[in-house]
Amino acid sequence: LCGIILIVSRDCKIMLPPYVRQSSIFAAHGIYTIKERTGIIMITRTQLAQTLSCAMSTGADFAEVFVEYTRANSIVMRRGKVDEISDTTIAGVGIRALLGTRSVSASTTDTSLSGLLACARSVADVICDSKVEADIHLIERIYPDIHPVKIVPDTAHKETKVDLLRECSKAAMEYSSEISQVTASLLDVDHNITIANSDGLYTSDRQIRTRLAASAIASRDGENQSGFDGPGRRMGLEMFDFINPADVGREAARMAMVNLNASYCPAGKMTVAIENGFGGVIFHEACGHSLEATSVARNMSQMTGKLGQKIANEKVTAIDDGTIPNAWGSINIDDEGSPSQRKVLIENGILKCYMIDKLNGRRMGMEANGSSRRQSYEYDPTSRMTNTFIENGPDKNEDIISSIEYGLYAKKMGGGSVNPIDGSFNFAVSEGYIIREGKICEAVRGASLIGKGSEILMDIDMVGQNLARGQGMCGSSS
User: Fold this and answer.
1) Which helix (H) or strand (E) holds 75?
2) CA dihedral of 357, 359, 361, 365, whole degrees rounded to 10
3) How far apart are CA 282 and CA 418, in angstroms?
4) What's the rounded mean pLDDT across residues 49-76?
5) Between 256 and which of 175, 227, 390, 456 could a Cys-Cys bridge form, CB atoms 3.0 to 4.6 Å apart?
6) Cα dihedral sign for 239, 148, 343, 385?
């Protein structure tokens, strides 16, 4: 801002030019801004404090304001042509008050002071009926950004994104003459949040994610089989310095051709070897959800009350880590403003901790640990996973396969579901092979793995050494 003198009144609203982002000069004067190319949400720190005081005015012991401005862009290409372009904006404020383990929340898109106070009053009127004066003083906390972004996708030319999709789609179509259809999509999300609460916390985070997905269909004699690949990162378009779009397209086509040539998987109980990457969905479904305080706090989890107990084979060490730089599930802060953590959930088979948000932590008598997530400002926060995986084990990958006389090698996993109360789960195998006499043999399709999480974790007897992370989306609560 060379050559400009800036005079700030604490409660004024300032329209910032496009090149100005959140910076110390504005934060120092209590100006909160979320900027993008066509709009701005602005709420001053004084207004946030007034809103919190209002939410607590009838006797709540805690109040929180969650401000969100999210831009999501998507381009879909089918048969080599752009078929769909969409951009979505989510903007609003969620207000929550707690009294013990009672929670009341409301949301609004009216970010004027009068709109915020009206929303806060609706919460206060329900939470209690006392009359309390709450003096809120907000102190800003700036947490380090360990997920740097170089190229903000929302500012890139559409042509740049289309070229990436075209490269991906072309490679998939050229993989085989039996690839009949290819759909490629590019998603980028610019998620901006600010959290202020009655404990005096005032902090914000900007979370940018990019994902390329390719789906290919292989056809022969009236039969169709599909393949999919969808890498993503907590990055901007610089993600493509590490990911080749053509490789993504070829991988989707390869899977489709494998399934087209595969026979149906035999049913029955058998030994299963699960590959790395998205194979980690077995842990996500088998016990990940059961370790979220969302279910643990209500005694609706098979893992309730088992801290310090052996729940898995001693070779299993399971981690939930939101601090991995630029990883798909990483965050600087969670949706309650707590810094992200690396949590050892299971260590050598022993249950060490749960994933906990504030409200469920109160129910359990335990501290929150950076695990709070919201679908959007309209939803209450709850406990969720970040990057969740089984740590490298002591076994060589080739030894795992050679140890199996007859079984299934699940090279690629699909989606699944779980009932956290009893741990029963199911999920699809999108690419599988029969193992015979310690060797990977013919491809099979149509396999679904079912079981109970508590049993599966104890039955794991070998863990390999090629840790990799796959990217996915989960549709659980909030």
Assistant:
1) strand 62-78
2) 170
3) 10
4) 97
5) 227
6) negative
